[in-house]
Write a structure and sequence with these properties.
mainly beta, Porin, 1 helix, 9% helix, OMP/PagP_B-barrel, Beta-barrel_OMP_2, Outer membrane protein beta-barrel domain-containing protein, signal
Length: 196
């Protein structure tokens, strides 16, 4: 029995020792799903920044929970009016990373987000209007991510695609036309991470 507890203790200590921490950041190219007939839509360029912990499970698999500030949204034009929607989330992705080839990894996992702010900006030839209507949006956002990356020294460069599973707007919101449509976040991320 002592040997079993000893082995368990060594395993836990080895797992804890092998964990690494770091910071990450980069660019978001985001949009909203096309289930809404807005007409012409364009992606919006934003950013993300945060921290992560990487915990190897074995030689091929590691788990990487993250805590990031994520600027999502969409930019589109409707006639002579340009509309930019900024949705700011504190998000927690939990990525399962597989290093099938040394230094290269693929990843996938869920992402949970909490809306912390938003801004609607309408621009036309004559005026600019800015609205903040947080009550029109769901506070929780569930999505999933898949990606790949390359590690070098204590850094990595990675790209990730995010697809939303939940509607960003609240049911019955008067701030949206076609309110029966599902509006979901999606985006492409590219950036760097630095481990300590």
């Amino acid at each position: 029995m002592k040997k079993i507890f000893g082995l368990l203790g060594l395993s836990v200590m080895s797992f804890a020792y092998s964990q690494s921490f770091g910071v990450k950041g980069g660019a978001n190219i985001s949009t909203i799903s096309k289930e809404n007939s807005w007409g012409d839509k364009n992606s919006k360029i934003g950013f993300y920044v945060g921290a992560y912990m990487n915990a190897p499970v074995n030689a091929l698999l590691s788990i990487q929970p993250e805590l990031i500030y994520n600027n999502m949204g969409v930019k589109y034009e409707n006639g002579k009016t340009s509309h930019t929607l900024n949705l700011n989330y504190v998000a927690m992705p939990i990525m399962f990373q597989f290093e099938l080839i040394p230094k290269f990894y693929v990843e996938g996992g869920p992402q949970f987000g909490v809306l912390v702010g938003n801004k609607n900006k309408y621009e036309s030839d004559s005026k600019t209007i800015i609205e903040k209507d947080k009550d029109a949006y769901n506070q929780l956002d569930l999505s999933g991510g898949i990606g790949l990356g390359f590690k070098f020294n204590n850094m990595a460069i990675g790209a990730r695609y995010i697809v939303g599973f939940t509607d960003i707007k609240k049911n019955g919101s008067t701030s949206w036309n076609n309110s029966d449509k599902q509006l979901r976040n999606s985006g492409f991320q590219i950036g760097l991470q630095y481990g300590f």
